[in-house]
Design a protein that fits this description.
single chain; 6 strands; 4-stranded antiparallel sheet; alpha+beta; 2 domains
Length: 438
């Protein structure tokens, strides 16, 4: 039964078209990061970046190196689109994108994480076996089919992403539209729709529409009678996100995923008219069946477990941020902070205030005032800086944070030398004060 569901060969039209769109979007994301100034502001201008903890060895290239880096990534994206040395191009793009993802957290986005894991999945896909330069160079690799698992890996990954995104919205500040209202306040000056986005009924429509869409879109796309309607709603939903939130390629990538839900006849009719449809439905079990199934199992267990890890860490993830990343918790809250970094000479007790403007960009300062791991990393960096000058110092912070526009509360224990603490990704940091305070 398992062999039939995973290793039965089906028409590969959806995967071929998806590869072309995916490669194009990877190209646009890479070169767009250069021309919009993202690379400059995130990777070139900062004195240093806040890496994912444990990946401090990943550092931006000096000078104009990161511009060349992103340009090369864009070239690999084009190679994927054209199907030129597909496997090598996909591996190179995946490694380069993963490196930049782990290299900095100031511009963290769940969509960047999705692109990283999706790129890794695409490495294993036989997406170059039709309408590609690889087939032109080596006609013997041409194929009209793919194993069914190629479709179901994508579908299951999307189901996990959307389901967790829906569940995460089920908390008071989202349900009473506080979050949406805060998010829309900054869109007031948008042409035509600005005032509409400030209406209370709009906030309720967006808040509950987001829960319903995320929770039901994958099942509705899988169910033939509702597929077309779900697709039309998806177009509206993702175009709205693209226009209002300006989140780059990801609304269009999300629309491209729908290729895996429509029958191959439809894909072939609109995109690959010269392609012959595959209808043999052969079951071809690979020699590496067991390792492949084990890999699938491990991958999806990780994908299911990671988003719930914050439930096993003390306090509210909206406050502590512990377990927030890699959890599909997208645009769930607004957060602002006020922070002062104090250096204390351990020899004589003398204290002085550090001005973050000397070391951090404005974007980095936002992270270094609300995210405890970034606060910890900056404290460690300051301690190391003064250590090189021959001083043994401690680093203390006076930090207050507001979540979803609520009153500011003390965030970090001001009596703890943050630079002298250890970070444990699986445990709550005791120097983060409780979310519920008198």
């Amino acid at each position: 039964m398992l062999n039939k569901h995973l290793f039965k060969h089906i028409d590969n039209s959806g995967l071929i078209v998806f590869r072309i769109i995916f490669g194009l979007l990877c190209f646009l994301e890479s070169v767009g990061a250069i021309f919009t100034g993202w690379v400059k502001h995130t990777l070139v201008e900062p004195h240093f970046t806040f890496n994912f903890i444990g990946f401090e060895w990943l550092q931006p290239l000096l000078g104009n190196g990161m511009y060349y880096y992103y340009a090369i990534m864009g070239i690999f994206g084009l190679c994927v689109m054209l199907g030129y040395r597909y496997r090598l191009s996909m591996i190179c793009f995946t490694l380069m994108w993963s490196a930049t993802y782990l290299m900095q957290k100031s511009s963290y986005n769940n969509h960047y994480y999705l692109l990283m894991i999706l790129s890794g999945v695409m490495v294993a896909m036989p997406a170059h076996k039709y309408a590609s330069i690889d087939v032109f160079r080596r006609p013997e690799i041409k194929s009209l089919s793919m194993p069914a698992w190629c479709k179901w890996v994508i579908v299951l990954q999307l189901f996990i992403v959307y389901t967790y995104a829906s569940i995460a919205k089920l908390y008071p500040d989202w349900l009473d539209t506080t979050v949406i209202e805060n998010l829309m306040r900054g869109k007031k000056d948008y042409y035509i729709v600005g005032e509409l986005l400030q209406q209370k009924w709009t906030h309720y429509a967006l808040a509950y529409g987001g829960i319903i869409f995320d929770g039901l879109v994958v099942p509705l796309l899988l169910f033939k009678p509702t597929r077309k309607y779900a697709f039309v709603v998806s177009i509206g939903f993702h175009l709205f996100n693209s226009i209002v939130f300006q989140i780059g390629i990801f609304p269009y990538l999300s629309l491209a995923f729908t290729l895996f839900f429509f029958p191959s006849e439809v894909i072939q009719k609109y995109f690959l008219k010269k392609k012959t449809l595959y209808k043999a439905n052969e079951v071809i079990v690979p020699k590496l069946r067991t390792p492949l199934l084990a890999l699938f199992a491990v991958y999806f267990v990780v994908q299911i477990v990671l988003p719930v890890r914050h439930h096993f860490i003390d306090d509210d993830v909206l406050w502590t941020e512990e377990g927030h990343r890699l959890s599909w918790r997208m645009m769930l809250r607004t957060k602002s902070g006020r922070i002062s970094y104090w250096i204390e000479n351990q020899e004589n007790g003398k204290r002085w205030l550090v001005d973050p403007d000397f070391y951090l960009t404005k974007k980095q300062q936002r992270s270094a005032s609300t995210k405890p791991d970034v606060i910890w990393q900056f404290a460690k960096w300051l301690k190391e800086k003064y250590s090189k000058e021959g001083l043994n110092v401690g680093v203390y912070v006076d930090s207050k944070v507001s979540v979803n526009g609520k009153p500011f509360k003390q965030f970090i224990d001001p009596n703890v030398d943050i630079a002298n603490q250890e970070w444990d990704i699986f445990k709550h940091a005791l120097w983060i004060l409780p979310s519920k305070q008198d």
